[in-house]
Structures are given as C-alpha cells and as structure tokens.
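// run 5 | inverse folding | seed 20
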C-alpha cells in the first residue's frame, strides 16, 4: 500500500510541476488552432472600357491606381470568384470550373489554386508556397477557322508569399484569346 501511495504522490507532484512550469513561462499545454479565414481568388479583367466596379474585392481602389498606370487600362470587372475556408496553420486548396468569356462565346476552364505552409507573422498571412493553374480547352471551328484556338494553360508558382488580411494582392496577370486586356489573379483573405 505504501508503494502505490508514494508512486501516485510522485506522479501527481510531477504533473503539478509540469503545469506550474507551463504557467510560469506563459506556455500553453495544448496547441490552439489558427485564425480562420476565407481565402478568395478573384479573376479581374482589365480593359479599355470603363466598367461597373461590382464584384471587385474590397480595398481594390489602391490596387487599381497602380494597375491603371502600369498597364494603361481604363476599367476593371470581376469575371470569376473562388472561395475556400482555411486557417493560418495548414493548407488550403480549391478546384473548380470557370465559365470563361472567350472570342466565340463562353467555354469551361478548369482552375486550381492552393496555399501551403500557411502561418501568421507580424500581422501578415504567410504561405510557404502559392500555386495557381488555369486550363482552357481547345476549340475547333470548322466554318470559321480564325475562331479556333489551341489549349491554353497558365501556371503561377510563388514561394514565401506574405500579404495583409482584408487587402487584395495580385498574384499575376495573363492573357486569354478572345478577352480584350489582361486578367489578374487577385488573392485576399477575410477573417471569419
């Protein structure tokens, strides 16, 4: 009986010492999950027409000034939005189809994007790797061969991407056949 009592007492003292040390050094004995965000990818088309700004991400005005002067564009419109929820500890990915406007109507494109190694430092969200992939299938038009197009593929790989929550950041721009002006892949994270 004496042996069991001393073993239980010793273990309870060790456990109490661990809890006391964790509290004394401001450490938590359990890990807390990261902040939850909606990671939103906007596809924004730029052109020479002045367009309605409906659907553009909040905080767009500051970004628009830079894009207007750099690319000599007059207007912007949101042509696609993809949302996925994630946290600042881990990774997020999204795969979807996009009804892309092209030269002879619309066509379905496949879009994939992912952020891996997500963390938060200095008030910014940091992703170890950001990937964006868009695939537009080929189109054959026998009656009007000029309206045919080859398959188009756009890939962006960015390492160590850091951006502020609630502020849009341009990942890159690309051109698609049939769209007047560049399309910008714009990412933002909105806290939930």
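// decoded
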């Amino acid at each position: 009986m004496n042996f069991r009592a001393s073993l239980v007492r010793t273990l309870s003292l060790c456990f109490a010492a661990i809890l006391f040390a964790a509290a004394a050094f401001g450490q938590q004995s359990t890990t807390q999950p990261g902040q939850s965000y909606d990671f939103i990818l906007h596809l924004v088309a730029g052109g020479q027409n002045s367009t309605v700004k409906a659907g553009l991400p909040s905080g767009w005005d500051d970004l628009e000034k830079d894009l207007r002067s750099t690319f000599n564009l007059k207007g912007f419109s949101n042509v696609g939005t993809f949302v996925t929820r994630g946290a600042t500890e881990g990774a997020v990915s999204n795969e979807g189809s996009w009804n892309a406007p092209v030269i002879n109507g619309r066509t379905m494109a496949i879009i994939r994007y992912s952020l891996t190694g997500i963390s938060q430092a200095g008030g910014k969200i940091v992703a170890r790797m950001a990937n964006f992939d868009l695939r537009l299938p080929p189109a054959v038009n026998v009656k009007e061969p000029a309206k045919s197009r080859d398959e188009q593929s756009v890939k962006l790989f960015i390492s160590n991407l850091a951006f502020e929550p609630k502020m849009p950041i341009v990942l890159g721009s690309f051109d698609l056949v049939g769209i007047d002006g560049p399309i910008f892949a714009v990412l933002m994270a909105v806290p939930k």
